[in-house]
Amino acid sequence: MARNIFEKSRTILQKASQLIENTMIRPLNRKVSTQIDNQQASSVGIHPAAFELASWQKSVLSPREAWIESLKAENSEEKRIQLLNPTVFAHYPRIDLLFKNVRWQKLYKHVSYANAPVRHEISRSLKKPWPQKGMGKARHGDRRSPIWIGGAKAHGPRGPKTYYHELSFMVRLKGLSTALSMKLAQDDLHIVENLDIDVDDPKAFEEVLDSRLWGPSVLFVDDTDFMPERISLVTDKIPHYNLMPVYGLNVYSMLKHTTLVLTVDAVKRIEERMLYHLNRTNMPNV
Amino acid sequence: MTDKIKTKIPWNPYFNPKLPLNPTVGPSELYTNVEEVKVDWKNIERLFPQQTVPIPPVKETYPSGWVPPKGSSLDCPYHVKRSRNHMLPVYFVNRTVKTQRGGWSYTQILHIEGDIWALEKDLKDYLEEYHQQFVPSQVHELSRWIRFKEDHVNIINSWLIEKGF
After folding, report:
1. What ipTM score was computed for the predicted complex, to two decimals?
2. Cβ–Cβ under 8 Å, residues A152 and A116
3. Prediction pTM value
């Protein structure tokens, strides 16, 4: 009885690994096993011994699907499907971490130059304004003190202040995965074979994207930072269409632009990196 | 007309081992002669530390007492995912407070997917029946964890394994 269960689990895992191969790339420096790739299966949550998943669980743990489109004029050819890993593209929405990431991105570069001089920095004389006794007036030593108009500020801001801080690694990771999953869930994520266009005029390119309702602002993400010539020249004129390599992907840009366009290479790179960091065990100071 | 990309150099050659590390730029006369020797790196690669914990091979029983997940029932509205070390995500936290109040301790269950309140209800009923005592609990929907006061790690582990997580 137990033997049958394990045999059945092996066949199911074989099917699962074929399904998963499209989505995941193995982490580097890892031996390529001739048997079923257990690491890929575990990252989705399917275990060799788990031979039956509830329909509800299948919807949560199974990969998501997206059409592979193109930036050129649409053809009537058959479209391929890109499988997306659910831990990256269907993450539970952590909107608190999204907020933290956006605030961090804005604030870590901020320097406050506010400076209020202290009483010995005020340019006023140190002369005693009137004698100590006999005047019927309050006793003062100089006109620089905080209680005087034009005097110092007692506990004011002091000098340039940096707001530099680092967010923890998991907060940044989960912020990225939350942003990606929210873009996918809200139909603002499009996957593209490559960034090749057949149009030279910026206005014509804008019309092509408007006809597809791809949002006023679009962020194109590719694996390299050497972008094709045509799209670079066209998007150079349009401020709300921006090109970005994968290493520049951040939560603020994803929320700022209405639609996010990823190439297939970019999807593979993002998934590989995210799954590596979510599954690795050597995280000393991170 | 297709776009021409003259040189597609990887932004970090570590991640793209197929492409050459130092692509030649300029006339080849300036470069010294290089002889590439094919080496079988197997004996060195096997010494590298593993960066991820692989799933153990399928067996009937394991000497450590580790139990793989066998798959929960079709009706179950929740799922508890295993950690990256393939262990159940149930942890006992004992916080010492350096005042007269003393410390406080709880067991925490992470990586919960689905109906978190249903899991909390089921677990709470089981624990209260086991201990014949009220067990305070806390549910965090956004971070997807549940806490129960005091140490219930082994009880919860056996309950989760029975459920098939």
Report:
1. 0.74
2. yes
3. 0.77
Task: List beta partners, residue A222.
Answer: A245
Residues 6+ apart with CB under 8 A from A188: A215, A258, A259, A260
The verdict on a CB contact (< 8 Å) between A28 and B17 is yes
DSSP labels for A201-256? -HHHHHHHHHHTT--SSEEEEESSS---HHHHHHHHH-TTEEEEEGGG--HHHHHH
Contact assessment for residue A132 and residue A140, using Cβ atoms and an 8 Å cutoff = no
CB of B85 less than 8 A from some CB of A? yes
Subunit contact B71:A6, Cβ cutoff 8 A: no
B163 → chain A, closest CA residue: A50
Backbone angles phi, psi at B112, to 5 degrees: -95, 130
Distances (CA, A) of A194 to A125, A140, A202, B68: 71, 76, 18, 42
Which amino acid belongs to residue A237? K
Question: Rg (Cα) of chain B, in Å, rounded?
Answer: 27
Q: Which residues contact B75 (CB under 8 A, 6 or more apart)?
A: A54
Residue type, A39: Q
Q: Say if residue B154's pLDDT is above 60.
A: yes
Report yes or no: A221 and A266 within 8 Å, Cβ to Cβ.
yes
Q: CA A256 → CA A107, A109, A208, A250, A253, distances in Å?
A: 16, 18, 21, 10, 5
Residue A41: list chain B partners with CB under 8 A. Answer: 55
Residue A33 pLDDT > 80: no
pLDDT (tens digit per residue) in B106-143:
999 999 988 999 999 999 999 999 999 999 999 999 99
Distance CA B147, CA B145 (A): 7
Dihedral sign for Cα A58, B51, A101, A254, please. Answer: negative
CB B78 within 8 A of CB B112: yes
The 10s digit of each residue's pLDDT in B40-65 is 888 888 898 888 888 778 788 889 99
- B86 contacts in A (CB within 8 Å)? 42, 47
Nearest CB to A51; choose among B2, B5, B71: B71
Residue A201 to residue A146: CA distance in whole angstroms: 64
